[in-house]
Write a structure and sequence with these properties.
81% of the residues lie in helices and 0% in strands. The termini are far apart. The protein has helices at residues 6-14, 21-46, 53-81, 85-111, 118-165, 168-175.
Length: 181
């Protein structure tokens, strides 16, 4: 059950922590999630549901997960089919980086081993984005060089095949350095 006046009131009443952008964002997220939780619980009570809080979590998170699967699977399938597996990997890793950076900041708050600041998350995620951009640039250059080498080899192979298919006297006549007598 939510404290009277919401979590903002509880924070102010207990002087939980000074305001920062991350803390404000987390409190707003907690308030929104609590509101949705209260609404679902009231639906359960209104329709004389006998579902426990755990059963409601099982159903709601299960449905949310499936909705996300139905939304994201077609996108990832399209990206994989169009040879954009790196984009799928990036999205996955980016999501993990967000979760990890939030977990680190929340852990710092709970253990008091550091300050919980939104800027730390921005810098952490920014570090990943910059390092990935450098990787993507190096990868792009390497792929371009590889394509250039392959196209040169293919051009030489085509030239060799073309030279093999020409009649012997035509080939020698055009490329011969002998002067006619």
């Amino acid at each position: 059950m939510r404290p009277p006046g919401g979590f903002h009131a509880a924070r102010e009443e207990y002087h939980i922590c000074e305001d920062t952008m991350l803390k404000e964002l987390l409190y707003q997220a907690v308030d929104w999630i609590a509101s949705v939780h209260d609404w679902i619980s009231s639906l359960n009570n209104t329709f004389e549901g006998v579902l426990s809080d755990k059963e409601l979590h099982f159903i709601v998170i299960g449905v949310l997960g499936m909705l996300l699967i139905f939304a994201i699977y077609p996108l990832f399938k399209f990206l994989a089919r169009t040879d954009h597996v790196m984009v799928v990997s990036w999205i996955y890793v980016f999501t993990l980086i967000l979760v990890i950076t939030f977990a680190i900041e929340i852990g710092q708050r709970m253990t008091r081993s550091g300050d919980m600041e939104f800027v730390d998350i921005v810098f952490g995620v920014g570090g990943f984005i910059v390092m990935f951009a450098v990787f993507a640039l190096i990868r792009g250059i390497a792929k371009a060089i590889g394509r250039g080498i392959r196209s040169r080899k293919q051009a030489k192979q085509l030239q060799a095949k073309a030279a093999e298919t020409l009649p012997e006297d035509t080939y020698q006549g055009r490329h011969s350095k002998r002067t006619p007598a």
